[in-house]
Amino acid sequence: MPDTITFKIKRQDSENTKPYWETFVIPHVPNSNVISCLMDIQANPENSKGEKVAPVVWDCNCLEEVCGSCTMVINRKVRQSCSALVDQLEKPITLEPMSKFPVIRDLAVDRSRMFGALKKVQAWVTADGYHDLGPGNREPQSHQEIAYKLSECMTCGCCLEACPQYSLNNNFLGAAAISQTRLFNMHPTAKNIADERLDTLMQEGGIADCGNAQNCVEACPKSIPLTESIAEIGRQVSGKLWSNIFQAK
Amino acid sequence: MSKMSLKLADDVPEKLFTEATKQWQEKYAEIKKMSGNENPYALHREMAEEMISNVLIVRENSKLKATLEKIDEFEERWKNINCVDTTDWSNPVPSFINQLWNMIQLSKIITKGALLRDEFRGSHYKPEFDLNQPSDFRPESYLEYEKQKDAGKVNEEGFNPEHLTYMKRFAENNVKWLKSTIATYQNGGPDISYEAVDTSLIAPRPRKYD
Prior knowledge:
The complex is a heterodimer. By secondary structure, chain A is an alpha+beta fold. Chain A has helices at residues 34-43, 112-120, 141-151, 158-162, 174-185, 194-201, 215-219, 226-246, and strands at residues 4-11, 20-27, 71-74, 77-80, 93-96, 103-105, 108-109. In chain A, the strands form 2 sheets. A 5-stranded mixed sheet of chain A has the order 2-1-5-3-4. Chain A has a two-stranded antiparallel ribbon with strand order 6-7. Chain B is elongated and about 75 Å long. In chain B, strands 1-2 form a two-stranded antiparallel sheet. Chain B is mostly helical. The A-B interface holds A 13-15, 39, 42-45, 52, 54-55, 57, 104-105, 108 and B 39, 41-42, 45, 84-85, 87, 89-93.
């Protein structure tokens, strides 16, 4: 094993400034991950030319690949930096922010559009009010098995970074929100507004924007069957379309 | 529901907010001016290693005492920190330096509280104050012992003699230490006092560590 690890990091000082590449050489620590290496850079923020620079900025939280906040592009592949083990990566290691979201600074991006998409499709259980609603309907076992997997989505953005249809310049809701629509449309309580969710997905930025590239399902770190979700929502939307045509409002 | 007097943000004098804003702006401006030669992240790492080595599960008074002195050194070294990023956009460094100060204060509380407690309970172990629980001891027998004590007469012959002396040690230790540690900030450091623990709902009993 080499005694040092070289990182090439795409940095950006603010939202509107130009990105630039900076190289850092840090001591190799066995079993380290990309985040522990970024912390080493923080503790000694000096680039490969020996210049003192500002420490690299990134987001992280859970450090166990369930929160999604440390998602970045590592060696050209989008993934979580907490679970990116340095000993398994090709060197030098390149780190870039995701390209489908506005960069805040360095590797930190603004993923609010993803959360906006969840709001648009009303990805929540619609039980509200101050009175006691009593127990909800039971969820059948066959649903639980599908729903559990779908519920593992952490809104990290990998599916959107890999998607050729999703870009900074359009308003496609993307695979994550479509899959969450499937989750909530099968929930015994949340399905009462299934039609509203489908209406949203029939509009601009909805399911019709999917180009069936199937990159999303390849990129998903949680192995969520996103293409199955897209197919299922496609079926639901088609059904809704026919009922819209034949049913008077 | 009881009637509460609701105080809304609008009822609070504006001055409270403007002064708090000013206080924090000044604090951050001071932090940004820090130009010593300690990297805050390296200092944090060093303190973490010190705490993990000496103030974790197994605790010894001599090591706790040495760590307390070490934390005072960290506090001095904090004053010599270099704010390694002084830009104004999405800069996490000043708030980290501010948090590090609070971590130093919290480390002092944890270490001093542990040092002054000449016993251990919960998930901690202080080998110097081991009450030497007999290996075949069952915590339920302590509840029986307490029940008899409360009734006014302990049938001492009914207990294994080794268990009985252990239970006496345990009861005696609780008289002194079944208390919550309270830390108050006095003269730049924690002042430790104790508060009784409410045991009305569940009777305290020895814990088995095997």
